Structure formats: structure tokens, C-alpha cells
Amino acid sequence: MERLRGVLKRVPRFPRRCPRSKTKPFRDPRLSGLVHSLGGFLFGLFLAPVYGMTALFVQNQGLWYCVYTTIAIAFLLAFGTGLSIRVRANVVLMMPMLCSMKGKNFLLFFIFSMLVQGPMTNTLENFDRAADSVVCGAELAMNQTQQLVP
Fold first, then answer.
1. What are the residue ranges spanned by the domains of the chain?
2. For residues 73 and 69, what is the distance between their CA atoms, to the nearest angstrom?
3. CB 82 within 8 A of CB 38
4. What span, in angstroms and rounded, lies between the C-alpha atoms of 102 and 108?
5. What is the pLDDT of residues 108-140, one digit of tens each?
6. Is 90 within 8 Å of 44 (Cβ atoms)?
7. Where are the beta strands (DSSP E) in 26-142?
8. Cα end-to-end distance, the chain, whole Å
């Protein structure tokens, strides 16, 4: 009975196909940190023009306003994500928001504002021209009335 218990407790050993290396590959933690910082810096530089294009083309902000704010955001975001793990984590955690329901609503809002912006701008321009035409007609009538009455 003792012999049977000893056999049951033994773990079967299968031959290894490839022997494992007893030494781990050399990885420098400073190099890993440098790669993460550089990746965060480049990611921040990528996100800033995305904001600038959105402000310029979707919101129709002024060109110089977009340039100045994009440079400021690029500086803050690039150096923030490049130097701070907390900023990098916050930015990465906020990115999936665009894929959620709130993000889809946000993108639909931008698309709707772009669709409405053209006809609304045209309607306001037509309204301004009609108002100018009415004012011009009223001035013409007033000038002709003054010429008739001496």
C-alpha cells in the first residue's frame, strides 16, 4: 500500500522540447522608460493637430486662434504625456470614450453641426441681404420724398 501511495504522489515528467534559458534576456529599465516617454511625447504631438483640425474645420474658429491653441495644447500634451505617467494614463483612459455611447453622441453632434452650419450660414447671409435691401429701399423713398417736398 505504501508503494502505491508513492507512485500516485509522483508527478509525471514529460521531456522538454526546448530547454529553457536560465538567464533572462537583458532589458534595461531606463531604456524601457525612455521608449514609453518617447511614445507618450509622440502621441501627444499626434493629438494636438487633431484638436487643431477640429477647431479649424468643424467649429470654424479663426486660423490664428487655431494655430496658437494647437501649439499650446501640443506643448502641454506632448510634455505631459512624455514626462508624467499619470497624465499618460489619463489620456489613454480617456481615448476609449470616443467608442462609447457618449463618444458616438459627441461625434454625431459634430456631424450634425457641420450639416446645419452650411444652410444656417446661407440663411443668415440671405437675411442680412434682405434687411439691407429693405433699408436701401426705405432710404431711397425718403430721399425721393424730400426732393418732392420743397
1. 30-101, 117-150
2. 6
3. yes
4. 10
5. 777 777 777 778 888 888 988 999 999 998 898
6. no
7. none
8. 138
